Amino acid sequence: MESADIKVYEFELFKNHARIVHGIFTRAGGIRKMGITPLVFLNQVHRSDIQVLKKDDNGLSENFQPGIEPFTADGIVTDIKDVFLVIRVADCQAVMLYDPEKKVIANVHSGWRGSVKNIIGNCVDKMILEFGCQPENILAGISPSLGPCCSEFVNYKDEIPKTLWKYKIKDKDYFDFWEMTGVQLMDKGVKKEHIENMEICTKCNTDVFYSFREEKTTDRFACVISMV
Length: 228
Ligand SMILES: [Zn+2]
Fold this sequence. Notes:
The chain is of the alpha/beta class. Helices cover about 20% and strands about 25% of the residues. It contains seven helices and 13 strands.
C-alpha cells in the first residue's frame, strides 16, 4: 500500500508478491482515507473460530456484502480477490497468511486466549482442508503485538495451560507469545523461513501503536490484507 502521508507497515515477506496488498496501520489510522474497500470486518470474540469465504460457494459471491455485517469469528480465510480482510488489535497479534500456489489469504486475531486455543494452527488446518493448501507454501506475517518484554501474566497458573509453560521466561511471570505463534505455525508444517515477525512490541511503542495494557484503550489499529 502506498500513500504520501499515511504510514503503513509492511512485511518484507509479502513485498515481492504482486497479488498481495497489505498493511498495518498505526494509531494515526488512514484506511478510509486511502479509499480501501470493500472491507471485511470481524466481530472478534477471543475464540478460535475461523470464517471461511469461498468464491465457489453457491450464491456467496452474489449475496456476500463485505463491510455490511461483520462475521463473528477471530480469523478469516478466503480465495476471493479484491476484498480487504481486517483484523483490529491493541497488543493482540494479527497473523496474516498467504498461499501463493492456491491463491488463498487469511487474517487471524490471536490474543493470548487465541494463542492458548491455537487459533493460528486452526487457521492453517482450514487452509489445508478447505482450499487444499500445502503448509510448506504458506507465508506468515506476525503484526506488532505484546512482546516477551511486556507479556506479564501474574495469574498464569489459572490462565495458561501447563503444556504452554515452556514459553514462560525463566524466573519471571512473562511469556513469549511471539515464539508460541512461530512454533504453532511450524507444528503445522509452515517453514521457519516463511514466517516473519515484525518483533515490534505494542506496549513499548505506544507512540505508534495502541496498547491495551499500557493505555487501557478501546482503540485498535488495523491490519489489512487483500489479494488482487
Ligand atoms: Zn515491550
